[in-house]
Amino acid sequence: MTIPNSEEQLIAFGELLLRQTEADAIEWNATDNENDFVFSGTKGSALVRQWRDYDDTVMYKLAILNSRGTEVESLHSEWESEGLPREHNETLERLWEAARRSALDIHQILESLMDEVEHPEKLNDRPGFSDEPPF
Predict the structure, then answer these.
(1) 39 has which bridge partners?
(2) DSSP letters along 9-66, please?
(3) Is the CB of residue 92 less than 8 Å from the CB of residue 79?
(4) Rounded percentage of the chain residues whose pLDDT exceeds 90
(5) Chain centroid offset of residue 130 CA
(6) What is the pTM of this model?
(7) Band of the pLDDT at 55, cuts 50, 70, 90?
Protein backbone atom coordinates (compact mmCIF):
# COMPACT_ATOMS: atom_id res chain seq x y z
CA MET A 1 0.00 0.00 0.00
CA THR A 2 1.36 3.39 -1.01
CA ILE A 3 0.95 6.22 1.48
CA PRO A 4 0.02 9.39 -0.42
CA ASN A 5 2.26 12.42 -0.17
CA SER A 6 0.81 14.78 2.45
CA GLU A 7 1.36 17.87 0.29
CA GLU A 8 -0.37 16.23 -2.68
CA GLN A 9 -3.33 15.33 -0.46
CA LEU A 10 -3.57 18.87 0.88
CA ILE A 11 -3.44 20.35 -2.63
CA ALA A 12 -6.19 17.96 -3.77
CA PHE A 13 -8.23 18.79 -0.65
CA GLY A 14 -7.78 22.53 -1.27
CA GLU A 15 -9.00 22.11 -4.84
CA LEU A 16 -12.01 20.11 -3.61
CA LEU A 17 -12.84 22.77 -1.01
CA LEU A 18 -12.61 25.43 -3.70
CA ARG A 19 -14.94 23.57 -6.09
CA GLN A 20 -17.49 22.85 -3.36
CA THR A 21 -17.37 26.43 -2.05
CA GLU A 22 -17.81 27.92 -5.52
CA ALA A 23 -20.78 25.55 -6.05
CA ASP A 24 -22.33 26.76 -2.74
CA ALA A 25 -22.24 23.15 -1.51
CA ILE A 26 -20.39 24.04 1.71
CA GLU A 27 -20.39 27.08 3.97
CA TRP A 28 -17.55 28.83 5.72
CA ASN A 29 -17.68 30.82 8.96
CA ALA A 30 -15.80 33.90 10.08
CA THR A 31 -13.51 33.67 13.11
CA ASP A 32 -12.21 36.20 15.64
CA ASN A 33 -9.40 36.95 13.17
CA GLU A 34 -10.80 38.92 10.22
CA ASN A 35 -8.47 37.10 7.82
CA ASP A 36 -9.33 33.55 8.93
CA PHE A 37 -12.30 31.50 7.74
CA VAL A 38 -13.24 28.01 8.85
CA PHE A 39 -15.18 25.10 7.42
CA SER A 40 -16.25 22.68 10.16
CA GLY A 41 -16.64 18.97 9.55
CA THR A 42 -17.60 16.22 11.98
CA LYS A 43 -14.04 15.12 12.86
CA GLY A 44 -12.12 18.29 12.18
CA SER A 45 -12.01 21.63 10.42
CA ALA A 46 -10.30 23.39 7.56
CA LEU A 47 -9.06 26.91 8.14
CA VAL A 48 -7.88 29.32 5.47
CA ARG A 49 -5.80 32.33 6.42
CA GLN A 50 -4.35 35.36 4.68
CA TRP A 51 -1.49 37.45 6.08
CA ARG A 52 1.46 39.57 4.99
CA ASP A 53 4.98 38.35 5.60
CA TYR A 54 8.07 40.36 6.54
CA ASP A 55 8.45 41.87 3.04
CA ASP A 56 4.70 42.65 2.72
CA THR A 57 3.99 39.68 0.42
CA VAL A 58 0.43 38.38 0.73
CA MET A 59 0.55 34.79 1.97
CA TYR A 60 -2.15 32.11 2.24
CA LYS A 61 -2.45 29.00 4.34
CA LEU A 62 -4.78 26.03 4.46
CA ALA A 63 -4.65 24.37 7.89
CA ILE A 64 -6.28 21.12 8.93
CA LEU A 65 -7.47 21.16 12.55
CA ASN A 66 -8.45 18.13 14.61
CA SER A 67 -11.60 18.02 16.75
CA ARG A 68 -9.80 19.90 19.56
CA GLY A 69 -8.77 22.71 17.21
CA THR A 70 -5.11 21.68 17.07
CA GLU A 71 -3.42 22.21 13.72
CA VAL A 72 -2.34 18.79 12.46
CA GLU A 73 -1.30 19.64 8.89
CA SER A 74 -0.94 22.70 6.70
CA LEU A 75 -0.13 23.99 3.25
CA HIS A 76 0.98 27.56 2.64
CA SER A 77 2.14 29.85 -0.12
CA GLU A 78 5.60 28.94 -1.36
CA TRP A 79 8.02 29.99 -4.10
CA GLU A 80 10.45 28.03 -6.23
CA SER A 81 14.16 28.77 -5.93
CA GLU A 82 13.85 31.03 -9.00
CA GLY A 83 11.33 33.17 -7.13
CA LEU A 84 8.35 31.83 -9.09
CA PRO A 85 5.18 30.99 -7.15
CA ARG A 86 4.39 27.31 -6.67
CA GLU A 87 1.37 26.06 -8.58
CA HIS A 88 -0.79 25.61 -5.46
CA ASN A 89 -0.48 29.30 -4.51
CA GLU A 90 -3.29 30.23 -6.90
CA THR A 91 -5.56 27.56 -5.41
CA LEU A 92 -4.91 28.86 -1.89
CA GLU A 93 -5.64 32.44 -2.93
CA ARG A 94 -8.85 31.51 -4.75
CA LEU A 95 -9.94 29.32 -1.83
CA TRP A 96 -9.41 32.16 0.65
CA GLU A 97 -11.41 34.55 -1.55
CA ALA A 98 -14.26 32.03 -1.96
CA ALA A 99 -14.30 31.21 1.78
CA ARG A 100 -14.40 34.94 2.60
CA ARG A 101 -17.35 35.51 0.25
CA SER A 102 -19.15 32.53 1.81
CA ALA A 103 -18.48 33.45 5.45
CA LEU A 104 -19.37 37.11 5.02
CA ASP A 105 -22.42 36.33 2.85
CA ILE A 106 -21.22 38.84 0.28
CA HIS A 107 -23.42 37.49 -2.53
CA GLN A 108 -26.62 38.01 -0.50
CA ILE A 109 -25.56 41.47 0.66
CA LEU A 110 -24.79 42.59 -2.89
CA GLU A 111 -28.06 41.19 -4.23
CA SER A 112 -30.02 42.99 -1.52
CA LEU A 113 -28.22 46.28 -2.12
CA MET A 114 -28.67 46.00 -5.89
CA ASP A 115 -32.39 45.34 -5.41
CA GLU A 116 -32.72 48.36 -3.12
CA VAL A 117 -30.85 50.60 -5.56
CA GLU A 118 -33.02 49.39 -8.45
CA HIS A 119 -36.20 49.77 -6.34
CA PRO A 120 -35.58 52.59 -3.83
CA GLU A 121 -39.27 52.67 -2.91
CA LYS A 122 -38.65 49.43 -0.97
CA LEU A 123 -36.47 51.39 1.45
CA ASN A 124 -39.53 53.33 2.60
CA ASP A 125 -41.43 50.08 3.25
CA ARG A 126 -39.11 49.00 6.05
CA PRO A 127 -40.70 48.77 9.51
CA GLY A 128 -39.79 51.72 11.66
CA PHE A 129 -38.44 53.73 8.72
CA SER A 130 -38.68 57.47 9.13
CA ASP A 131 -37.34 60.38 7.16
CA GLU A 132 -36.96 62.26 10.42
CA PRO A 133 -33.52 62.46 12.04
CA PRO A 134 -33.20 60.27 15.14
CA PHE A 135 -32.74 63.24 17.49
Answers:
(1) 46
(2) HHHHHHHHHHHHHHTTSS--EE-SSTTEEEEE-SSEEEEEEEEE-TT--EEEEEEEEE
(3) no
(4) 65
(5) 37
(6) 0.81
(7) confident
Nearest C-alpha neighbor of 21 from the set 74, 110, 109, 95: 95
At residue 7, what is the residue type? Answer: E
Q: Is 99 exposed, middle or buried (0-12, 13-18, 19+ CB in 10 A)?
A: buried
Delimit the domains of the chain by residue range.
6-125
**48 strand-pairing partners:** 37, 62
Question: Given this model, what pLDDT does residue 34 score?
Answer: 95
Query: Mean pLDDT, the chain, as a whole number?
Result: 89
The answer for 128, left when phi > 0, alpha when psi is -120 to 50, beta otherwise, is left
pLDDT at 120 over 90: no
